[in-house]
Design a protein that fits this description.
Length: 332
């Protein structure tokens, strides 16, 4: 039984020798192909040299000037988000139209003005957004369909949500990293027109009034706490007890809780008041980096592409000639 199921030893040795022979032929073919390629490079060195020189020259011709970008954090004050976004759109439209008169009106020379594009998007504060929307999980989907938007990110940039976001990601694209003071020119375009100044004036007045009302509320709560504490001390001295005093204790705890919230909120608002110098304020460091692009490597890409295309075409021609020789031999 075992002799019938297992092949003879000689057959096993023949199978192994065939495998080794196949591997040897494959290795020889690889070595042979490698030397054929090397021989072809040696014979056609002048063609490859011409292709490389032509590719480098073409890369220099089509190479674009380097561009730079800066990603900054922008803070909007006095519920000016919609105005700021509209102003940025107008700024970009003027740049796209190469409006030299617009750049001149900014007090800049069109030849030296370095800003090429400005983009902005809100920094979504998830907790604030959830509190604003409520607990309805389907609210975002319904509003996305209502405004016919592709996804929720576009929804956040609509007027319905825009006023809820104070911080925004601001991206500048420059053609030079030398004239960064052009960012100040951009901010002046937003902050220094008559509408912006009037909005800032009213916003500051309302915010100062709000801070004063918060301080007044805290002072009133302190008076209430003192009066309740005084009444409680008098009642304790008389030895009176009952539900009335338990109710007073609950009122006192509620007042302390309200006061704590007001004090914390007032501290945040006062700290925030430091950045209320304008409608739009940059609150991050200005750092510019070179924008990487495929055009930066054209002097390498073009020669490489030319050489690859030449090799492919040479391979096709060689295969065609080989096929033609074989068909001619068969006809004979």
């Amino acid at each position: 039984m075992s002799d019938h199921n297992n092949p003879p030893v000689n057959q096993q040795e023949m199978d192994l020798s065939d495998i080794f022979s196949l591997i040897g032929r494959l290795f020889k073919n690889i070595v042979y192909s490698f030397f054929r390629v090397v021989d072809y490079f040696i014979k056609m060195w002048w063609a490859f040299l011409l292709l490389i020189v032509a590719g480098i020259a073409l890369g220099f011709v089509f190479k674009e000037e380097p561009s730079y970008e800066a990603n900054l954090l922008l803070k909007t004050n006095f519920t000016s988000q919609a105005y700021v976004y509209t102003a940025i759109d107008q700024f970009n439209n003027n740049l796209e139209e190469d409006d030299e008169g617009f750049i001149t009106s900014l007090g800049k020379s069109p030849e030296s003005f370095s800003i090429k594009e400005v983009s902005v998007e809100p920094v979504v504060e998830v907790l604030d957004l959830v509190n604003y929307i409520g607990e309805n999980d389907g609210a975002l989907g319904e509003m996305t369909r209502e405004f016919k938007l592709e996804d929720d990110r576009e929804l956040f940039a609509t007027d319905r949500f825009l006023s809820k976001f104070k911080f925004h990601k601001l991206k500048f694209v420059f053609d030079s990293d030398k004239n960064l003071n052009d960012i100040e020119t951009f901010l002046s375009f937003i902050n220094d027109n008559s509408y912006a100044k009037e909005l800032k004036k009213e916003g500051l007045k309302n915010h100062i009034a709000y801070l004063e009302s918060q301080e007044q509320s805290i002072a009133q709560i302190n008076e209430l706490i003192n009066s309740i504490s005084t009444d409680k001390n008098i009642s304790d001295q008389k030895g009176q007890q009952g539900f009335y005093f338990n109710n007073q204790n609950e009122n006192l705890a509620s007042l302390f809780h309200t006061k704590s919230n007001l004090v914390g909120n007032l501290e945040i608002e006062k700290n925030d008041f430091v950045s209320y110098s304008n409608l739009a304020v940059i609150v991050s460091d200005i750092q510019v980096s070179k924008k990487s692009s495929i055009t930066d490597n054209l002097i390498v890409i073009y020669p490489l592409v030319f050489v690859i295309i030449f090799l492919i075409l040479s391979g096709i021609v060689s295969a065609y000639r080989s096929y033609k020789r074989e068909t001619s031999a068969l006809k004979r």
